[in-house]
Amino acid sequence: MTAATSLQAWLARLERQHPVAIDLGLERVAEVARRLALLDTPLATRVITVAGTNGKGSTVAMLEAVAREHGLRTAAYTSPHLLRYNERLRLAGCEADDAALVEGFEAVEAARLDGDPVTLTYFEAGTLAALWLIARWQPDVALLEVGLGGRLDAVNVIDPDVAVVTTVAQDHAAFLGTHLDTIGREKAGILRAGRPAVLGSTTLPASVRERADALSAPVFALQEAFAWRMGDRGQEGSEWQWQGTAPGGEKVALHGLPDPGLPLDNAAVALQTLALADVKLDETATRRALSRVVLAGRLQWMGPWCLDVGHNPHAAAYVAGQLAQRPRRGRRLCLLGMLADKDADGVIAALAPQIDAWVTVSLSGDRARDAAQLATFVEGRGAKVLHQGASPEDGVRWLHANMDNGDDILVCGSFWTVAEALAALETLGAASSRSAS
């Protein structure tokens, strides 16, 4: 069996071996982590854990880029992936190869069966495999992105040296509830006593800071301990500056930073977090890192196509704000596919001012919402649905055949939507066939 086939077989096996896909709680994960000796010694010289409703991926991407540009050995664990499972673990900026991931899964499987067998979900097994590989890699900085919530997420079995909460908004209501204070308390579960807490939004619910105060965790909040400022963002070549706080309390600043094409709140969070992780930020190195950072599926432009995995109203409002700043010659169309447990009406309402017409598509699986249901939400707001697609690929192919020169297209609503659309675009070569400029 080849390494690639072996990885595919492992992933298929993991999908089958636990009765539910999401089973929040740390008891089972902690037991297997103990058997793997992951709790005996630090995972890395510095561990940074990032939680939040939106902004986790972009924050981790900028943390990784800036740390690497400063010569640090990095490991980053994120989820979910778009095209390849390997995307979830990066060592020194490179995706883990199939053989390494298989070795990690084998180590986890041996540990979970060493004594009373322990059941693990797909995500839990993958997280433990990644943590085991990171521990063997022994990086200078390990970056861990929380999958869902925080307090009971598998990533939280590891104690961070610096914990980050980016934003708190409604999402995953079936698991986290709908009250923002409750959601905030869950995400603040990654904070640790006496260790820095970086708060990346000025609108976090009070429960986040209350949790930090209860733990005597030093709080470094946006617009308090750190901030960013810039001129006219619409001008080509515009720059911004960051002001932050070093671990000893002294003020630090960086000037002339390039726009990374990702939320500047998250860029400022990344710089503040690294400063608290004892990284002496160099202006030139930081400029290089921010000018090169790329994050697939986050306002990712491919010719006239813009792909963004945003799937809640908070994320959609940010995307709409960015689109509003972008000139266009033709129509702006949206290919939308969403899961049934997401706030479709809220997402459509946030995007609607920037969208001329819509293509709705069906997703597959137990949590799927079909194109007709989405079309009902769109038409209920008086907007036009051009096509109802059986899948994101069907929607991409229809748009590719029917779009006009000068149109641009937003693809959003779910990781699944963007992943399938991205694969279809690569197959069609559509991203480079027409220009949005």
From TrEMBL:
Entry keyword Magnesium: yes
Protein keywords: ATP-binding, Folate biosynthesis, Ligase, Magnesium, Metal-binding, Nucleotide-binding
Pfam families cross-referenced by the UniProt entry: Mur_ligase_C, Mur_ligase_M
Gene Ontology molecular-function annotations: ATP binding; dihydrofolate synthase activity; metal ion binding; tetrahydrofolylpolyglutamate synthase activity
Listed transmembrane segments: none
Domain of life according to the entry: Bacteria
Protein name: Dihydrofolate synthase/folylpolyglutamate synthase
